[in-house]
Write a structure and sequence with these properties.
The strands form 2 sheets. Strands 7, 8, 9, 10, 11, 12, 13, 14 and 15 form a 9-stranded mixed beta sheet that branches. This protein has a 6-stranded antiparallel beta sheet with strand order 2-1-6-5-3-4. The chain has about 290 residues and is α+β, with helices and mostly antiparallel strands. Helices cover about 30% and strands about 25% of the residues.
Length: about 290
């Protein structure tokens, strides 16, 4: 099991990974990033992740220092060098270093950093029994650049702290209109009358790569999907709730705040959609996460 870091294409051990204290990613959270996982050692949906990284960079006016294809190659080289059975990847682009000051033009050259860690899957019990979440009303730095995956996660970090203090797995962000937007590191779905519901892009979500594949998987099994804003009360009244993200895949939710979801156990639509997702990405014969 190996951890390593690639800085502007140079692969080093974590203890040798150094960037300037004047880097704007460090000073101001002035950066964008992607979280990726491997399946059978291959980065999943790498092209899609690099396309979203480029879109995020464009939205916050950070120029891509190399092409998205070249950055994808750097990710693959780093994963190969780590030689983990499965890897967790964070590909990051900062505006770069420069004199102190908020003016973006002070940055000299964007910096790219790729972190590789051994993938640590969630415990099987979380998939078998489901998890609890809490709703937290807050505003995030990403709300100023809708659709960009920005490095300033302070609001989400504090929301997750609230969740952990409550013994919950995740915090669901409630926006200014009083509806649930997404989790701190996940997209959210509900099931009502056999229809899968998820907030629309215009609600201010970061449209997840796994979320997009789940929507295709739902079509594969002729499962109806509707994009709809949901209040915390409406979410809690659903027959099923689940989260999606690159690392979680599909994670059942059995409690929202103090409300139990239906019978308090993962539901059949959640299970069917998770299985369809795994078939779609070529893992039909592998054990499901709750069978681990």
């Amino acid at each position: 099991m190996h951890r390593l870091v690639s800085i502007d294409g140079s692969i080093v051990a974590p203890e040798e990974a150094k960037v300037s204290v004047y880097d704007r990613g460090f000073l101001y959270g002035d950066s964008v990033f992607e979280t990726i996982r491997t399946y059978r050692g291959v980065p999943f949906a790498l092209t899609e992740h690099m396309e979203r990284l480029e879109r995020s960079a464009t939205r916050v006016a950070i120029p891509m220092p190399i092409s998205k294809e070249a950055m994808a190659d750097e990710v693959k080289r780093a994963v190969t060098a780590a030689a983990n059975p499965e890897s967790y990847i964070r590909a990051m682009l900062t505006r770069g270093a420069g004199p102190l000051g908020l003016d973006p033009s002070l940055a000299q050259q964007p910096l790219r950093v790729i972190f590789i860690e051994p993938l640590a899957p969630l415990p099987a019990a979380m998939y078998r029994d489901g998890v609890s979440v809490v709703t937290v009303r807050t505003e995030r730095a990403a709300d100023a650049a809708s659709g960009a995956k920005v490095g300033n996660y302070l609001a989400s970090l504090l929301a997750l702290r609230v969740a952990k203090e409550a013994g919950a797995h995740e915090a669901l962000i409630v926006g200014a209109d009083g509806t649930v937007v997404e989790g701190t590191t996940s997209n959210v779905f509900a099931v009502r009358d056999g229809v899968v519901l998820t907030p629309p892009d215009e609600a201010g979500i970061l449209p997840g790569i796994t979320r997009a594949h789940l929507l295709h998987a739902a079509a594969d099994i002729e499962l109806p999907v509707r994009f709809e804003r949901l209040t915390p009360a409406e979410l809690a009244a659903s027959s099923e709730v689940f989260l999606s993200s690159s690392i979680r895949e599909v994670l059942p939710v059995v409690r929202v705040d103090s409300a139990q979801i239906a019978a308090g156990r993962p539901g059949p639509v959640t299970r069917a959609l998770h299985a369809a997702f795994r078939r779609r990405i070529g893992l039909a014969g592998d054990p499901m996460p709750w069978e681990g």
